[in-house]
Design brief:
- By secondary structure, this protein is mostly helical.
- It is about 55% helix and about 5% strand.
- Helix 3 crosses helix 12, helix 9 packs antiparallel against helix 12 and helix 10 crosses helix 12.
- The radius of gyration is 21 Å and the shape is globular.
- The chain starts with a strand and ends with a helix.
- The structure holds adenosine-5'-diphosphate and tryptophan.
- The site of adenosine-5'-diphosphate has 18 residues, from helix 1.
Length: about 325
């Protein structure tokens, strides 16, 4: 089985990225042939500063390696090191109905937030489709917000195959319902656009401060509380062991515990989870050559697949 997922290097990674996308991908690297990439072509739709793009791309590489990406198992690469995807994007563009892209929420959401309405931003799901189809991926682990884009990829794969003969595998989305939307400190979806994130590799003190600011209802210490509707508990559930969860849930239900105590428990589990990864990341940051080697090797493996697919696609449409 082939698995592929990518992340845009557009900012510091947070708990939503970690549980919604990184962890599911990293689990799958043991179950199949994984392709994981830094979507820097995609990031060009929102970042116009070259140094910022370079720095963010390196940061994402360090983040993934620190979180357990194993370069012996997964091919890990920068999207732009596999330029075949841009050629495939063009072929797919010529059979992409405008209406299909016009219906995509993310374009509307992004332009509503003030991102320039460029052709690249509009055509973004076609580039994403090319990423997936170029390596003939079976499974695409993503957060729920990307579901519509995977449907575009499926539609375009089917359309191409019907029109020109079968070249592409039709991919499936893999969305973990239990972590589909990780809440931010204000209770909305955690997202860098809402300034409600807890960064996984930020400053430890800052992370704790953000945790202490998580929005709750106004129940008093004595009141009985409901863990299932609480933003603190929603995050605790992702980080703590089943026993720890049961213990804290019992305290919620018994009354006599303030939200401050729950926040402290969350801050502790956050720290014990991420402190070792932070150390690993620091060590990797000192070894840029290693990181570059990993990315170069990953690109070679991905390019081999992409080149083979492109060859078939060029033949199918009559470019060769
Ligand atoms: P952001 O919303 O911060 O800009 P991105 O859109 O760059 O995050 O998301 C990168 C990946 O992380 C995607 O696969 C997305 O689905 C996942 N993701 C982001 N935020 C969350 C969240 N709050 N819950 C679950 N998954 C998320
Ligand atoms: N669009 C995705 C995001 O913003 C990143 C991405 C680009 C991606 N190409 C992909 C994800 C291919 C999965 C498969 O999160």
């Amino acid at each position: 089985m082939r698995i592929l997922s990518g992340i845009q290097p557009t900012g510091k990674l947070h708990l939503g990225n970690y549980f919604g996308m990184m962890r599911p991908v990293l689990e799958l690297q043991d179950q199949g042939e994984a392709f994981i990439f830094i979507a820097n072509y995609h990031a060009l739709t929102t970042i116009s500063d070259a140094n910022e793009l370079r720095q963010n791309s390196l940061d994402v590489a360090l983040d993934f390696l620190a979180c357990g990406l194993d370069p012996k198992k997964a091919a890990f690469y920068r999207q732009s090191d596999v330029p075949e995807v841009t050629e495939l994007t063009w072929m797919l563009s010529t059979l992409t109905p405008m209406g299909l892209l016009e219906r995509c929420h993310s374009y509307k959401d992004k332009t509503a937030r003030g991102i320039a309405a460029s052709h690249g931003l509009f055509a973004y799901p076609v580039l994403m489709t090319a990423d997936i189809l170029a390596v003939q991926s079976d499974l695409v682990p993503v957060g729920r917000d990307q579901k519509q884009h995977i449907e575009v990829a499926r539609d375009l794969a089917i359309k191409f195959n019907n029109q020109y003969g079968t070249v592409f595998k039709v991919p499936e989305a893999d969305i973990r319902e239990e972590v589909a939307v990780v809440p931010g400190i204000d209770g909305q979806k955690m997202s860098k656009s809402y300034n409600n994130t807890i960064e996984i590799f930020g400053n430890a003190k800052e992370a704790k401060k953000r945790i202490m600011r998580i929005v709750t209802d106004s129940k008093t210490v004595e009141d009985v509380k409901d863990p299932d509707t609480c933003n603190i508990f929603a995050l605790y559930r992702l980080l703590a062991s089943p026993e720890q969860q049961a213990e804290l849930a019992a305290k919620y239900r018994a009354g006599g515990m303030g939200y401050g105590e729950a926040k402290k428990a969350l801050a502790e589990s956050f720290e014990s989870h991420f402190a070792p990864l932070r150390e690993k990341r620091e060590a990797l940051a000192g070894d840029r050559d290693y990181v570059e080697d990993v990315l170069r090797d990953g690109a070679q493996r991905a390019r081999k697949e992409a080149a083979a697919t492109l060859q078939r696609a060029r033949q199918a449409v009559g470019l060769e």
